Amino acid sequence: MTLRSTSSATDAKRGGDREADPLGPDSLTWKYFGDLRTGMLGVWIGAIQNMYPELGAGVEDHSILLREPLQRVARSVYPIMGVVYDGDRAAQTGAQIKSYHNTIKGVDGEGRRYHALNPETFYWAHATFFMLIIKTAEYFCGGLTEAEKRQLFDEHVQWYRMYGMSMRPVPNSWEEFCEYWDAKCRDELEINRATLDIFSIRIPKPWFVLMPTPIWDQLFKPMVGAQRWIAAGLFDPAVREKAGMRWTPGDEVLLRIFGKLVELAFVAVPDEIRLHPRALSAYRRAQGKLPENAPLVEAPGFMAPPRDRHGLPMHYVPPRKSLLDRAGSLVHTTFSLTGLRRPARGARDRSGKAA
Fold first, then answer.
1. Residues facing 275 on adjacent strands
2. Where in the numbering of this chain does the ER-bound oxygenase mpaB/mpaB'/Rubber oxygenase catalytic domain appear (predicted)?
3. What angle separates helix 249-265 from helix 119-140, to the nearest 10 degrees?
């Protein structure tokens, strides 16, 4: 069952014709999306996104993920996080991300036309980020109640409005979303070249890492292998079958035990490490520790795309910083990692202050 509406009334009903309100520190999305544990699902989200035919075709024809996977993912996460954490500037960040997709279009190997701004395709990518939160929370953060899943669904709709896209592909409820997700996994996802590339991905050593390449490779091989195993466990059975992956009841038990160990270990992880820098700065703005108009945290300059790709509209290029700015960032990061400015853990009220 594919849930889609062709009437303009649907957009209006979901608020597509009014100014969107950004998410805030009282949301569950703020609690989970910026958490480091989402990184354990890197292979899962890369593969499940690319299995969507139009999205996979765009990656095959336009992405340089295999050329510099670490830098590509690291820098892209900054604006993606911003659509959740940038407050009154979130819609501007959403428009920025949307603009990167204007020129990503073409015809795939089956003769099917694609465009990254096709509403169905763009929403699928967003749906995978929503499910990233659901699966991270369920497996590695202690689980979710049904009420929390419904709250996260409502928040993902509010979050999606930040992009200024058509709301027509968006299901009307958590129950309808589950039907949408099941139908996509069962009937539309496919194992294509872009997906296979994720399964077999190798992480080349970045130029700025001062480590012998053989040692780097030995560090990352088991890490990628572990992520493939996690991905197999988190795939829906229909997707796992398409991918030819084996998953046993024993694997499920091991994954649940591993998830519980991760949950317990993260109790002692400070927010400066646990949270993405864009999320951490958002909490500090909400708590009054930073001005509301403080500059948004951007990706480090060394994560920029290769020089031959600068100027292409599909790339986010971190702004250059002066030597003074970089020195200040270094000092700030050093003090942050000591925990001297660690924000309070636990629940936060609507003002962003610790409860």
1. 35
2. 30-262
3. 80
Q: Is the dihedral of CA 271, 272, 278, 284 positive or negative?
A: positive
- The pLDDT, as a whole number, for residue 73 is 82
Asked, for residue 345, whether it belongs to a domain, the answer is no
Number of domains comprising the chain: 1
| 346 inside domain | no
C-beta of residue 341 within 8 angstroms of C-beta of residue 289? yes
Contact (CB, 8 A) for 51 and 45 = no
Please name every residue paired with 156 in a beta bridge, in sequence order, or none if there are none. none
Instruction: Give the Cα separation of 29 and 166 in Å (integer).
Output: 21
In a domain, 6, yes or no: no
Domain range for residue 329? 16-337
Q: Are residues 75 and 81 in contact, defined by beta-carbon separation less than 8 angstroms?
A: no
Q: What are phi and psi of 29, to 5 degrees?
A: -65, -40
Give the predicted TM-score (pTM) of the model.
0.82
pLDDT score recorded for residue 68: 72
For residue 187, give the DSSP letter: I
Whole-number Å distance between alpha carbons of 102 and 55: 13
Report the C-alpha gap between 129 and 152 in whole angstroms: 11
- Residue 7, in any domain of the structure: no
**Within 13 A of 81's CA, how many CA atoms are on the CB side?**
28
